[in-house]
């Protein structure tokens, strides 16, 4: 029989002692898998508080037919299926039932609803999943009542919020510790391009392991460091400007090899791109170099939102990210509120420069 002690033991084996909010989630997840609790568990809280850590541990142990994915990937998949599905009185329900076939446990990471069209789709999907008896685990930076916060549309999503509150154990992760920040600040992870101590992330050095460096600032003198990183992963690829196809659209790049992509920030995030472009990039390349990032451009809401999507999706696919910017990127993000989920992006940038993340991404662990 599966119980919460299985999750506790697995975390303890990693040297992790769960805090009180994580313990509440562990108990709810154990009851969910044992069939002794609500049909779902909804874990919410600030970025880096261990939501995915606990859910990942549970998911690995769950002895059932299961599926786990990130929200961007799910929405792309379901939207494609809806477009391709034959007409019917309940096309969304038909697509949801087909998608859920054979799935006993479904886990969504980074669940969010910012768009009314997504709200209708996810509402019908959750109704269908609950009616089928599918067990569901959601992690989110938002409490259920704060989903789709736009006051113009929020009331139309309240029935789905009520559905979540009725069928899910809602657990607030309110611990003080940010696990991503903790992973980022190892004793050797604090150098920038000029050797100045930095507490906002790992910055590349002109010595040491150039291929493992992550963030470079300022831009002066970074070209050779970026070239060294690209060459470390693309020994056979030519390093010259070209145009590649991404999500059925052209993208001008500094270089594109079998494993790594090198492009300017303006091309990646300044132009009209969507999360579909970044999903295609993450599925094709193992690492991305974002060059010439002008941090002043992040003040534009659309540019900032695209950068958030890019970081989110590369993180979700466990891809390497190297950034060369005019200022330290994580410091530049502090205080920006022009897009959804900037705090999560800052937290993820911290983790993405940790030695553990770089190692896992370089080994292709996803």
| Unreliable stretches | 185-208
Q: In order across it, which strands form the biggest sheet?
A: 2-3-4-1-5
Largest sheet: 5 strands, parallel
Binned strand content: 15-25%
Q: Give the N-terminus to C-terminus distance in angstroms.
A: 28 Å
Q: Secondary-structure element order, as H and E?
A: HHEHEHHEHEHEHEHEEEEHHEHEHHH
Count of DSSP strands: 12
The structural domain count equals 2
What is the CA-atom radius of gyration, in angstroms?
21 Å
- SS-based class: alpha/beta
Query: What value does the average pLDDT take?
Result: 86
Count the DSSP helices. Answer: 15
Shape: globular
Helix percentage range: 40-55%
Spell out the blueprint of helices and strands.
Elements: H1 4-13, H2 20-33, E1 40-45, H3 51-61, E2 66-70, H4 71-84, H5 91-99, E3 105-109, H6 116-132, E4 135-140, H7 154-167, E5 168-173, H8 179-184, E6 215-216, H9 223-233, E7 242-246, E8 249-253, E9 255-256, E10 260-264, H10 265-270, H11 275-284, E11 287-293, H12 301-316, E12 320-325, H13 329-333, H14 342-352, H15 355-362
Parallel strand pairs: 1-4, 1-5, 2-3, 3-4, 6-12, 10-11, 11-12
Antiparallel strand pairs: 7-8, 9-10
Helix pairs in contact: 1-2, 1-3, 2-3, 5-6, 6-7, 11-12, 12-14
Structure description:
By secondary structure, the chain is of the alpha/beta class. It folds into two domains: 4-173, 3-Layer(aba) Sandwich (Rossmann fold), CATH 3.40.50; 179-362, no CATH class. Helix content is 44%, strand content 16%. It is built from 15 helices and twelve strands. It has helices spanning 4-13, 20-33, 51-61, 71-84, 91-99, 116-132, 154-167, 179-184, 223-233, 265-270, 275-284, 301-316, 329-333, 342-352, 355-362; strands spanning 40-45, 66-70, 105-109, 135-140, 168-173, 215-216, 242-246, 249-253, 255-256, 260-264, 287-293, 320-325. Strands 2-3-4-1-5 form a five-stranded parallel sheet. A five-stranded mixed sheet has the order 6-12-11-10-9, sandwiched between helices. The longest helix is centred in the middle third of the chain and has 17 residues, at 116-132.
């Amino acid at each position: 029989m599966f119980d919460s002690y299985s999750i506790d033991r697995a975390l303890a084996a990693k040297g992790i002692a769960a805090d009180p909010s994580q313990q509440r989630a562990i108990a709810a997840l154990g009851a969910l898998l044992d069939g002794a609790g609500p049909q779902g568990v909804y874990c919410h809280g600030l970025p880096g508080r261990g939501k995915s850590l606990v859910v990942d541990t549970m998911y690995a142990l769950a002895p059932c037919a299961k599926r786990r994915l990130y929200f961007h990937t799910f929405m792309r998949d379901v939207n494609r299926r809806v477009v391709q599905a034959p007409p019917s009185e309940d096309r969304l329900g038909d697509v949801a039932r087909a998608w859920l076939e054979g799935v006993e446990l479904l886990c969504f990471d980074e669940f969010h609803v910012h768009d009314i069209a997504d709200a209708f789709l996810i509402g019908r999907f959750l109704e269908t999943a609950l009616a089928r008896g599918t067990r569901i685990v959601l992690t989110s930076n938002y409490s259920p009542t704060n989903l789709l916060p736009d006051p113009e549309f929020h009331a139309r999503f309240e029935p789905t919020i009520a559905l979540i509150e009725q069928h899910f154990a809602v657990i607030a992760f309110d611990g003080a510790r940010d696990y991503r920040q903790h992973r980022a600040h190892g004793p050797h992870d604090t150098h920038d391009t000029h050797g100045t101590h930095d507490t906002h992330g790992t910055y590349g050095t002109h010595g040491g392991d150039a291929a493992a460096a992550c963030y470079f600032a300022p831009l002066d003198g970074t070209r050779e460091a970026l070239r060294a990183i690209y060459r470390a992963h693309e020994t056979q690829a030519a390093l010259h400007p070209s145009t590649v196809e991404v999500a059925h659209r052209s993208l001008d790049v500094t270089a594109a090899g079998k494993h790594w992509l090198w492009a300017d920030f303006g091309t990646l995030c300044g132009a009209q791109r969507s999360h579909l472009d970044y999903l295609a990039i993450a599925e094709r390349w193992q690492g991305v170099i974002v060059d010439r990032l002008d941090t002043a451009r992040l003040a534009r809401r659309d540019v900032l939102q695209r950068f958030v999507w890019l970081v989110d999706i590369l993180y979700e696919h466990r891809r390497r990210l190297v950034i060369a910017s005019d200022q330290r990127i994580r410091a530049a993000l502090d205080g920006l509120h022009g897009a959804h989920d900037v705090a999560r992006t800052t937290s993820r940038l911290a983790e993405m420069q940790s030695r553990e993340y770089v190692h896992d991404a370089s080994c292709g662990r996803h």
